[in-house]
Structures are given as structure tokens and as C-alpha cells.
Amino acid sequence: MLLSLFGGVGLFLLGMALLTDGLKSFAGDSLRAALIRFTGRPVTAFLSGLCATALVQSSSATTVATIGFVSAGLLSFTQSIGIVLGASLGTTSTGWLVSVFGLKVSISALALPVIGTGAFLHLLGRGRWAALGLALAGFGLIFIGIDQLQQGMGGLNDHIDLAALPSTGFLGHALMMTVGIVLTVLMQSSSAAVATTLTALHAGTISFEQAASVVIGAAIGTTVTAALAAIGATVVAQRTALAHILFNLFTGLVALVLLPLFLSIIAWANTHLDLQPGAVSLAAFHTLFIAVGVGLAFPFLGPFGRWIERLRPEHGPALTRSLDRSLLSVPPVAMEALRNCLRNCATGLFQILANRLRQQPPDRAEETRLNQIETALDQAREFLSEIPKVEHQEEGLDLRLDSLHALDHLVRLLPAARQNHRMVSLPLLADRAAQTAQLLDAAVLLLSRAAGTRREDDAAPTPDFAAASRDLAAWRKAGRSALLEATARGELSAEDSLRDLDALRWIDQIGYHLWRITRHLGHHAVQDARAGQERLAASLPAPPST
Predict the structure, then answer these.
(1) Which of 153, 388, 390, 526 is buried most, with the most CB atoms less than 10 Å from its CB?
(2) Tally of CA atoms within 13 A in the half-sphere of 352 that contains its CB
């Protein structure tokens, strides 16, 4: 009996893992990129979390992936809250799958051919077809696991009368909720805990009220995975995990307080809506109390997010917050976190340079900012050296090379931001400085769009930085000749000539490094940057399945 139960849970978990991995690989960009592309508003973020979790059958997989994206700066904390709510509701699809199909049909007769087809497709197929085979094999294993659980539960009912345990009152509900929490923590899967509970209810091992309390406990216990994923992560990622934990605790409390009402609704549905009693009713109860929790929390996402931010305030330099060393185990995410850090450094540097070109006098705040950028670049260099190289991944090599180029140009440009040239002698020198300042402003918009912090339609068209740099180089050469000739004729003092020559080289240097930095950090265009983020999402290894 115990071996059957143990093996059934193991087969179910293995099937869930294969189904999750296979579907993620088969869907490619369209699945994981949804968390990045369709999270602009709370509603779309919620729907992204709901659909992703329903497809991969794992709320923790979605939550852990979201925490990784937030750590890398690909998603904001506000976006992540909507995804977490959607994932909580999406995970209830497992109960429907098990109750409608797993407990109603001949499991072995249907599952074994599916497993065989999936295994051969995975071994003989290539690319997405191999991934589809893996998903099919996992799907079949889920039902084999349920079949084993049913056999084990039948034997358990002969030895242990769980129905004799209290099912009403605070003590009874607390005891069965604790069972649900312990099951979820041990299995690291709320889906497995719910499937086990549905099987026990179907076998008559426990009563409906006991099963309802266990399911509530499973919803609370699933927060352990998010808590583990947030250990050592960035503050924003820890906020996401905290939001997940608090929401599930809130939902569990709502379900416990309103349990008599929910049970009455299910009983009414059994009588008037022909809802099947037993496992199907329990799946409906699971969806009902999660949906009520989402409905109560959704209007207050803004205040809830601000409260979380006060509970877990940011610490440390803003420029390097994304350099979370826990991301080093996932090189694509770590690389994007590094690039966000470099974009932030470049943005701050460009803004200071624009002020210098507009002849605004430097102040102490700007000097402090430059020191922070210099420190951040040193930390970025160290972080880059620690990112593991991914073999046989050309795109990862290209991103590493782009980041090295950008880092080199930022370090070379940093001294230019500490200079402040007076431009009065050479005609049009001040005009060129003003035009270069406008280029810097456009570069700030470009990098903001590439990082996803500014909507594409909110920014002006991107100028041709390469053409602007070539134009500045030609202008510097012509201006140098004109300056030297004017000095030789006595029209300009040697002191003023040398000062303006320095200014010429300074502006040309800014234009050149500006071009190279935007090329390597802007992915040559905003569209390429967004495509790169989507490819990054698709290249992430699958989080632990639950």
C-alpha cells in the first residue's frame, strides 16, 4: 500500500515535470515570452500568469520564472503581482484535469499508448516534435501515477480511517489544513497534493469537508517554493515572493472564514446545476475560493504593491541592484541583468554629458553620481567575469561580446563627463555641442525603450548615431585645420586655439562612444532589443516543476 502511494506520487511528479518541460520547449517564444510581452497592465499580467500556469500545469514554475525575470529587471514588481495572481488561479486547472479525466476513465488503457507515442516521438523526432513527445509522455505518466494513487488509497482505507478524524470546528479544519501544507512542502508541488486529495476523496478515504481543508492547506503550502527561490535574490524579487506568500495566506484565510458559505454553494450547484459530487465538486471548490481571493485582491493591487514596497524597502546603490549573484546559475538571465545595469550607467552618464555640453556648471550631486557610475562599472566588470559561458549558444556569445564592448566604451567615456569645456572661439562650436546634447537625449530614450521602461510609442524616432559620429569626425578634422590656420595668421591666440582643439576632440569623442554604446546596448534598434528579450525568455531552463 505504502509503496503504491509512494510510487504513484513519484510518477505523478515525474509526469508533471516532463509535461512542463516539454510544453515549454514546444511552445518556444510564445509561452515564456508572454510573461514579458503581455504584462503591461494588471489585467494582461494576470491573464499571462493564468494562461502560462494552465499550460505548464505548475504555478510554482510560473512564479519562480517571474522572480527570475524580476531579478534581471525584465519585469517590474507591479507587473509581477498580476502574474502571481494569475498563476494562483491557473493552478486550479490540475484539479479539473484529474477529476474529470483521471478518475473517470480506464487509466492504463489510455495512458500507456500515449506514453509509448510520446517516447518514440521524443527519441526519433527533432526540435519541437521531440519536445511534444516529451510532453505527451509526461501527460500519460500523470494518469499512471493517479492510477497507482487510487490503488494505494483503496488499501489505505482498509487500514486507516481518516474519515474518523474531526472534519468540523476549528481544530478539525486546522488539522486537515496542516496535512495539506505538509503534503505540499514534502512533495514541493501543490498540484501533487491536490491530486492526492482528489484520489483520497474519490476512494472514500476522507470526507468532502476534510478534502476541502486539505486543498486550502495546499494553496498555502505552495508558497514555500517561492520563498526558497527568493533567498539571496534582489529586493524586487523578494517583494514578488512576499506578495505571493501574502496573497495565498489571504486566500486561505478567506476560504477558511467563508468555508460554510462555499460548501453551501457547492451543495446548491450539485442539486441545481448537476455538478457531480465528489472529486469534480472539490475541483470546483478549489477554483471558487481562489477566484474569490483574486476578485477581492485585484482592485487593491496598487495599494498592496506600495505596502509591500514599504515592508521591504530597497537598499544599496540603484545602479547595481539588478546584479544579483543568485542569477549566475542562469547565464541568459544574468547577462540581461548585467545589460540593464550597463544601460542604467549609460543613461546616467549621458544625462551628465548633456548638461556639460549645454554649458551647465557641474555640481556636487553630479560628481557623486559619477562616482557611483564608476563604482557600478567596476562591479559590472566583476559580475561579467563570473557569468558562466554557455556552450553551443552563439547568441549568448554575441551578448557577452556586446556587453564587453559597451563596458569598454563606458569606461573610456567616463573621464569625458568630468570635463567642462568653454566654447567661444570657433564658430558653430556651441551649436555642435547643443546638437550632440540632443543626440544624448535621444540615446537615453533609446536605452529606456530597449530596457522596457518606456513604451516605444512614447519616444521620438531613433536618430542614426553612426552617421552622426561620422559627421562629427569630419567636422573635427575640418575644424582642426581651420583653428590651426587662424592661429597661424594671428587671428586666434595659442591658448584659445589649444582650448578649442580640446573641445573639438571632446565633442567628437562623446559622439563616437555614444554611437558604439547605443549600438551594443540598444541591440541596434528597439525591435531587435525586444526580440532579444523574447529569445532570452525562450532560452531559460525550466524552473523546478510543481
Answers:
(1) 153
(2) 26
